[in-house]
Automatic annotation (TrEMBL):
It comes from Amycolatopsis rhizosphaerae. Belongs to the CdaR family. It comes from the Bacteria. Residues 337-393 form the PucR C-terminal helix-turn-helix domain. This is PucR family transcriptional regulator. Signal peptide: none annotated. It holds the Pfam family GGDEF_2. Residues 173-289 form the CdaR GGDEF-like domain.
Length: 404
């Protein structure tokens, strides 16, 4: 009786030991072919730094070798495929986004699907290889997503803490070098102007507040730094230096939607983050005083709240009222100053003011226009009239105390 020698086969997905050995020897070539296809078909891939492309090749080689191990023992699939990403440099995810990574995986799988059938010894093995690469590709895709999710979660938690430190440093006026360094780590453009907005958060859940602010900021193409500090939300909004006043106010108005009920105060727009403490200081002062102006717009600039801030004891507001209103009016001469005072005392009645001063009403109009040019405040506007009245009062009190 003649004994026939049969080649031993494995139970690993219906593939013979010989086929598995051939696949193992060819894993490096398959990985190189995959990377070559990426360079041909993905323009952004060829623009990556050389070390990042080498990292992708290393991951692909590890994945190709892992495929053979997976065919031998599919129960270890998750561990083996995840190893490919654990060995990658930590900053790879900063260069390659999740969608791009998934595209690389898809392309590698396509190359494998094209090349692997040639290694099969039979149609049954060919079918087993195709099925195997599809299942393995699914495991690789899950491993990719898990790797990026873990990196994003860790980076997000660290970024959130760093962002809170930056905003807290701006509010407290910490050394600008430390604030700028931390802000740069978060991707803040040092050439960007900054405006601080303060108000109540829209929810008791900080992640919800953060999501809403960032959603609106993304729609406005504005960089933001934000922090929820108890019952107040502080947002530092970035923007270009040359953007017009109208567009700036429109953007701030849309961003104010992310705040909760109640007033929202915006500090002055400063040229850079290094000066953002001034914007924050004035915004917070305005938030404390805005209760004195129930009809204030939302958001309201802190400079529009100078009377309320001065009445609440804000020395900076008093200084601004004197420097920007009282002093220019006095420097213009007694006629302009007396006309403004008489107009305010007359309750805004032009004819009464003219009779008091023994001048023609047109003379009063001319002098009021002159006062508007000097101060930016129109005495015929009810709100501006209040600002002028408080400014002149603060100026008189400062002069009586010898401070001016």
């Amino acid at each position: 009786m003649t004994q026939t020698n049969h080649r031993p086969t494995t139970k690993h997905h219906g593939l013979s030991a010989k086929t598995l050995r051939r696949l193992e020897r060819a894993s490096g070539r398959l990985a190189s072919a995959s990377v070559a296809a990426m360079e041909r078909r993905l323009p952004w891939f060829s623009r990556l730094p050389a070390d990042q492309r080498a990292s992708v090749l290393m991951i692909t080689q590890t994945g190709a070798a892992g495929f053979v191990d997976w065919l031998r023992d599919s129960h270890e699939a998750l561990k083996l495929t995840t190893e490919a990403f654990r060995s990658a440099p930590q900053d790879l995810s900063r260069w390659i986004g999740l969608r791009q990574a998934v595209g690389l995986v898809r392309m590698a799988i396509e190359v494998f699907e094209h090349e692997l059938p040639a290694f099969a010894a039979s149609e049954a093995e060919q079918a087993a290889l195709i099925e195997g690469i599809l299942r393995y590709g699914r495991e690789i895709a899950f491993a990719t997503a898990n790797s990026y999710a873990a990196a994003a979660e860790a980076r997000g938690a660290w970024d959130a803490r760093l962002e809170a430190l930056v905003v807290d440093g701006i509010v407290r006026g910490d050394a600008e070098e430390a604030v700028l360094s931390r802000a740069a780590a978060l991707g803040w453009d040092p050439a960007s102007a900054a405006t601080v907005l303060v108000g109540a958060p829209s929810s008791d859940d900080p992640p919800t507040v953060v999501f809403e602010v960032r959603r609106l900021a993304a729609r406005l193409s504005r960089p933001v730094l934000l922090s929820v500090q108890g019952s107040r939300l502080i947002v530092v909004a970035g923007g270009p230096h040359d953007e017009g006043t109208v567009r700036e106010e429109q953007a701030l108005g849309k961003l104010a939607v992310a705040f909760g009920d109640g007033p929202v105060v915006a500090g002055p727009t400063v040229p850079s983050l290094a000066e953002a403490h001034r914007s924050a200081s004035e915004a917070l002062s305005g938030l404390r005083a805005v209760v004195g102006w129930p009809a204030a717009p939302r958001p309201v600039r802190s400079v529009e709240l100078l009377p309320e801030r001065a009445l609440s004891g804000d020395a900076e507001a008093e200084r601004l009222l004197i420097e920007e209103i009282a002093q220019p009016l006095e420097a213009a001469g007694t006629t302009v100053l007396q006309t403004v005072e008489a107009y305010l005392e007359s309750g805004g009645v032009l004819e009464t003011c003219a009779k008091t001063l023994f001048v023609h009403p047109n003379t009063v109009r001319y002098r009021l226009r002159r006062a508007t040019e000097l101060t930016g405040r129109n005495p015929t506007d009810s709100r501006d009239a209040l600002v002028l009245r408080v400014a002149l009062t603060v100026g008189r009190l400062a002069r009586a105390r010898g401070l001016w």
